[in-house]
Specification:
Layout: E1 8-15, E2 36-37, E3 40-41, H1 44-51, E4 56-63, H2 71-81, E5 85-89, H3 96-102, H4 104-107, E6 114-119, E7 122-124, H5 128-138, E8 142-148, E9 158-162, E10 169-174, E11 183-191, H6 195-212, H7 217-226, H8 235-243, E12 249-253, E13 258-260, H9 264-281, E14 296-297, E15 301-303, E16 308-309, E17 314-315, E18 319-321, E19 326-327, E20 332-338, E21 343-344, E22 349-355, E23 360-361, E24 366-368, E25 380-382, E26 387-388, E27 393-395, E28 398-399, E29 404-405, E30 409-410, E31 413-414
Length: 415
């Protein structure tokens, strides 16, 4: 049996610049994991959740972004949380399980009894401590966080079947063509170090099959182009599916919110979910004001301390205002993310939108959308350094960086 007092480490998979293309234009100059949701970088939310795990020794961030892109953030978050956070750059993509295995010596240097594995682009309450306790009771090598979704949306994710009594994972299939279950994988795991043996077995069996099979040189060439790269191991297809039904993997169901942050629209929805969660976890981060000495605040709103907001502005619900933003008199903000160094001028309205860094919205202008988080043009996005001139209306549109709009647009992508 594992010691209940054993050390725990957490690994957060970050992806890289070749991933997250659906997040453009917001990921052109800022790595997606550092895009702010509810005023905090996307990766900050799982890191903060990991900090609450008892006996946490280290947090590792694994990705194939350049190290310099995370140097400042890693240093500041390590100091803020008083826990070592390290960024580990993959030399090439190794897959979700392969990346874990590639850095196994570093991950195991504190001899942890348990390893958490999280995906950076997941938004949820991260019930990690409760899940760890359940995992210890189950006695398997791994436990998945799972949630029930609508049958219509389930096939976008990994569907699974679990024993209703024991919670054992009985069957797992990634994005099936036909309906299997409304229970899906949330991309949040806890494992014992035995997971490394399971990953090694996949690689070994793959090599053995390749060595045993005698083929012609032409067939060998075809196999080489078709086969999975050496060291590339997928957690879902290569580990979860084969181990399902063997009393090694178990599930822990969350009844709270869960989203996968693939697009800017979903990021705006997730910002709202995190702001609402702040009421219970971090109420000091939420702004207040009644319009006398400070702006009128409605619902859940984050305002960075360096932002300047005019007392006659009306802000909320679901608004996040970043550093050095200037909000002028009479401005109305609803369901939006305002990024660093933006200026919103007098009597402008921003609704269901993301306004990019160093952008400007002119007097009496409107930047708005219908607020359909799943539609391609369901929210309006202004890329970095976009200027919307006075009395211009921008509706359901995406504007790429460094553009100036001097006339109104609707349902357009401005390249």
């Amino acid at each position: 049996m594992e010691s209940s007092e054993g050390k725990v480490v957490a690994v957060i998979m970050m992806g890289g610049p070749t991933k997250g293309t659906r997040f453009r234009p917001l990921s052109f100059n800022t790595p997606k994991p550092l895009f702010p949701l509810a005023g905090q970088p996307m990766v900050h939310h799982p890191i903060s959740a990991c900090k609450r795990i008892p006996n946490l020794a280290q947090i590792f961030l694994i990705g194939f972004y350049e190290e310099r892109e995370f140097t400042l953030y890693v240093s500041s978050i390590s100091n803020e949380l008083k826990v070592p956070v390290r960024y580990l750059k993959e030399d090439k993509p190794h897959g979700s399980a392969g990346g874990l295995y590639y850095f196994r010596d570093l991950i195991m240097e504190d001899s942890p009894s348990h390893i958490f594995l999280l995906n950076c682009d997941v938004c949820c309450t991260f019930p990690l401590s409760n899940k760890l306790e359940a995992h210890k009771r189950y006695g398997g090598i791994g436990t998945l966080l799972v949630i029930k979704v609508s049958a219509e949306s389930a096939n976008q994710f990994g569907e699974l079947v679990a024993d209703p009594i024991t919670n054992e994972l009985l069957h797992y299939t990634e994005k099936p063509e036909t309906f299997v279950s409304d229970l899906i994988n949330c991309g949040v795991y806890v494992f014992t170090p035995e997971i490394f043996n399971a990953i090694q077995d996949v690689s070994s069996h793959r090599d053995d099959r390749a060595n045993l099979r005698r083929v012609s040189s032409f067939e060998a060439l075809q196999l080489a182009t078709r086969n999975t790269p050496s060291g590339f191991v997928r957690l879902d297809q290569d580990i979860l599916s084969p181990l399902a039904g063997k009393k090694q993997l178990y599930t822990y169901e969350t009844m709270e919110f869960w989203e996968q942050i693939k697009t800017p629209g979903i990021s705006l929805k997730c910002s709202a979910l995190y702001l609402a969660q702040f009421r219970f976890t971090s109420p000091h981060l939420l702004a207040g004001g009644d319009g006398t000495k400070s702006a009128t605040i409605i619902g859940d709103v984050f305002v960075h301390p360096s932002a300047k907001v005019h007392p006659t502005a009306k802000i909320g619900p679901n608004v996040s205002i970043s550093a050095n933003v200037r909000i002028s008199a009479g401005v109305r903000l609803i369901s939006c993310i305002i990024l660093d160094d933006v200026e919103i001028k007098e009597n402008a309205v921003v609704m269901h939108a993301i306004v990019g860094w160093k952008s400007s919205v002119g007097r009496w202008s409107r930047v708005q959308a219908e607020g359909d988080y799943n539609a391609k043009l369901g929210i309006t996005i202004l890329g970095e350094a976009v200027t919307v001139e006075d009395k211009v209306v921008v509706i359901n549109s995406i504007v790429l960086p460094n553009k100036t709009l001097n006339e109104s647009v609707q349902e357009e992508i401005i390249l």
